[in-house]
Amino acid sequence: MEQHQKSVARTPPTSTIAQRKSKSIGYRQSYHSCLSATSRLGLTSALTVRRLNTTRRTPKSHNITDKVNPEHLSLLVKTEWQLSYVTPLYQFRHTQLRSYSRQLSAFIAAEKQQGLAVEVEGLHSSFRVLFSVVQGLSESDDDPETVLIQIHSKPLFGKQDEPQKPIWSGWLTCINGNSEYLRSLPEDFTCLPLFGSNGSEDLTSAVKSWFKQTFDCCFGPLEISNTNLQWLVALWTNCHREYDIQYLKMIWTLPVVPPLQVSYTVNSTDAWDLWNSVRQEMRAGEDEAENVNSIDIEEVIHFFEGLKNHFYRHFRLDLSGGSLNHISSALGSAKLSGRIKIAYSRYMITTLTLLTECALLKMPV
Amino acid sequence: MAYPQNTSDSERSSLSDQSVSSRSFNRSLRVAEKKRRKDTAEDPFFLALKYFSDVEAGTPVTGNDELERNLVLVEKVAHSKGLSPEAISIMLEFAMSLRMGNSPCVRVLKCLIPASLVPQDAIVRGVVWLCVGKIPIATQVLFIKWVLTIFDLVDAKDQLRAIYGFIFSFITEENLCPFICHLLYLLTRKENVRVFRVRKLLELQSKLGRQPFLIHLLSLYKVFCPELVTLSIPSRMKSGFRNHNSTWKSVLTGVQKRNGFHIPSSVAFTIKDKTSSRKRKHCHLELPALTSVANKEAQTEQFSSKKVVPLVQLHSFSQLLENLHCIELPAQMGSLLGSTLALHYLDCVQDESALLRLNFWLGYAFHEEFLFCGDGGTTQNSEEALQFLNKLLSAQHFLQEGFSSSESFLYKFLKVWDGSLLCPQILALLSNIPVVPSSQIGTILFEPLMQLFLTSSLFFKCGLMECLNNMLLKWLTWHSVYALEDDLDISLNSHTSINMTLSGFKDSVMELVHFVGRLASVGLQLEGCHALLLSFILDFYETVCDTFQKYGLPLVIVPPPGVFYPALFATDPVSVDRLAYIMYRYKVNLMSAKSQEKLTKQAFHISRQTFCEFNQSLVVMVNCLWNSKMFNPGMAVQLGDELLLKSNVPQYWASFDLIHHPAFMSYAVDFHQKCWPERQDMDLSSIKHSKPWSWYLEYLFTQGYEGLKHFFQTNISQQMTAGDGQSNTQQK
């Protein structure tokens, strides 16, 4: 559906933004304030719809290792993350991370032993939580700094002096978040809409409930839709010019009985050739220099049509009836269910930008 | 979650007698002295009290008939009338001092039934005797149990709070611990929660395990100081302490009832939902619990000087009012929806961020439940969704305002709604949406509603009509409130572009009324002018016809022919009567608009078109019902003469007057029979003669057709004879 929306509609028009930013108006104060499409209990206009971007910049290789602590970077890559979206955090302070670490570890200890009170200040908890800022992992000036959370614990039957091991990790980030949206939020809010977690379900839900209670936010699952998976494939393929993506693997599910799963792997150079031809065809009449840095949704659609046609020619099976579930290449992998793995850090900004956009689209207000 | 329940004590009321009560023990003797001198007949009960206050320590108990006699007397009085505050002081002092050993002490404690209040002093002295440490443990327990039982009757609690630390020290005594915890629970204030006490309790916890009394006290500590202690309460844990002595309690209530003294009972305002044990995959519809903010450091910078009271600690409306200036919002704003008390507060919250937090939560819940859920089926017949929406609706009803997140949700949801899922709730939510700018109203509201309307059942059509009527009513009410305040200053506001001006508002209302007119016309056609649908449509026009008079909105829109004619030719008299009433109100509105126009030059202008349309309808109605000139030339509905003749209807021009109108025919017949009971053949036309006609009208009006009566009185002049109605109905 989204792919046919040609309009390059970005997030809400400025007018509504101004509306929310406008200072709080007293209840029953003004005719205008009431009858403006907002009411007191609602500070935003409900009339605007955010849409997915239909044009994106081509991925650029980032020298991310120069900016981000390699230790942090090694924690972020090569792990599969389960994604969620998070509504803006209220009263979150990057300066309070030490205190958050203490509170969260006490909270987890209390959750683990239902009904047993836990002292917050006591540091002898069996769980050690570490909040840290991932310096440099942000693109625009409006992006709040990424926050990394690690939970360490002693193994259950470990020796006395055995060091604590990391058992859970997660992060909250916002890369190239829509600046109009970010600026429209009151200062008390920090928007880190993308949450990735890796570790046991129990701990994930404990961390989520602590965040909910502490920062009055909500967590919801973030799937990566078909369109977004296709976008990722196109963006990754486009990187082949600079970095060998080695292969491009896509898994489709076809709604037949019994369900049919099609695993479709394309050689990286073949994919690149197809992509290049699509690009050249689409850009035929246009100014080369101007458009070389952007990719249009039309090109993505054409690219996929090409891939599907090729498959049809060989196997007489039309993939457009099915849904794309899983993609992977040397740059990483992504699943419809919202699992993502980034294998190569130089292009992670591009991937995270797309995912931040998806998460922002899920924001209820 | 347990909450402190001690807050409803009679503290304030008794503050004035506090000085009295603090000296009551010493004074009691003097009072008794005076009383003795006054009373000529020696009161045996007084003598008994005197015995207990004067008796020497070490007096033998066994074989002491005097003691036995006095004790029995006190017991009798206690159980029948209860003991006065002075008597309580004397007896407690006697018992706790162990002047005559442990056994009378236990007996005395068991009969300490207060008649009205218990002096705080007596209890403080009791605690002092506890500290002496001679009393056997079982008796100590008995004493604390007694204090817990009569806690609400203690006249003041300030001194008890002052010795919080002493009371706390008894917590290490294993047998006393559950009762001390309960007492502390009743006494604890924020300033009592200290790190060392938390540590002590945690230490006890590690020794005794997860005891409910410790957990309750700790959870209260957590309410006050979440930064010191954290705790998750298992759902199966029972709430409340069970330390009351039931026999005491029943005797006490009996005595109190007899004395007509009312124990102030603590009424918790919070609605506590029975959390269902049923596991559910999604939990986004669960209201978060009301908890105070844990993360104080971040905020205290700006509030450090200000004392704040978390909303969790308030349990009554009066407390809310007292603390209104210093209430701290809960950690999760969504929790406000679960408590009526909190809703009262929400009504005065001005904080933009707080409302945004609420909207984030609410929008999230809506989206997850109704829009993002991939599996679809879970929402069908979901009891939880129903409860959630009902709760939200009652909150919106209470606040008389809709939440913007529910508004934005509705715009998305209308596009995918099947019109049946939670229909009454969704329609009720929809009727709460604020005014939509006319430029957008078509795409976001009318298009999806039109589709739903045309493809759904009669009952949905009726429901939607009702919803749109409520929506219009709310818009008009807003207008009348705000227009009054702003004194109709409608200069265009420049700094926010979507701010609405009066003309913008008028446009929106106009769009809505025209839209409903179209829906109604089509709907009546589709449903064969169903009387139920017609009734809902007339409801709507009852609102529309009064926009100027009732709500001060300078706008008059007359019903389209698709609504007017089905109502005029309806087979039930009620619809015709209501139409007459509506036309009467239109006339009143138009007349007053016109007179205002003359009075102040710049008053709004009602287009000629409106007057024309109205007059035409009026003429049709008068000609049809009164003048029997149904198809007169120049009227809106015209048929060729030949065609009418061909129809073979005799006197077709009279077939819709008040006598022959299908809705009123039965009345005409009835009237005819009453008027000329002896007549054999019925000639309804004879009613048309001037005298019986006016009697017939009177008869109709007495049948409750007020609408017709008003219509008649305003539109048809008194000297009316059949024929000149038309000239009277014309507007100038």
Automatic annotation (TrEMBL), chain A:
Keywords assigned by UniProt, alphabetized: Centromere, Chromosome, Nucleus
Database matches in PANTHER family: CENTROMERE PROTEIN L
InterPro entries: CENP-L
Keyword check for Nucleus: yes
Organism listed in the record: Parambassis ranga
GO CC terms: chromosome, centromeric region; nucleus
Pfam families in alphabetical order: CENP-L
Name the record gives this protein: Centromere protein L
Gene: cenpl
Coiled coil spans: none
Region listing for Disordered, in residue ranges: 1-23
Subcellular location: Chromosome, Centromere; Nucleus
Family designation: Belongs to the CENP-L/IML3 family.
Keyword field contains Nucleus: yes
Polar residues biased stretches: 1-19
UniProtKB/TrEMBL annotation, chain B:
Signal peptide: none
Location, primary (coarse class): nucleus
Cross-referenced InterPro entries: CENP-I
Keyword Nucleus: yes
Gene Ontology biological process terms in this record: CENP-A containing chromatin assembly; mitotic sister chromatid segregation
One cellular-component annotation, GO: nucleus
Cellular localisation: Chromosome, Centromere; Nucleus
Keywords (A to Z) from UniProt: Centromere, Chromosome, Nucleus
Stretches the record annotates as Disordered: 1-26
Organism taxonomic ancestry: Eukaryota, Metazoa, Chordata, Craniata, Vertebrata
Protein name: Centromere protein I
Native organism: Parambassis ranga (Indian glassy fish)
Source organism, top-level taxon: Eukaryota
Protein family membership: Belongs to the CENP-I/CTF3 family.
Biased composition (Low complexity): 15-24
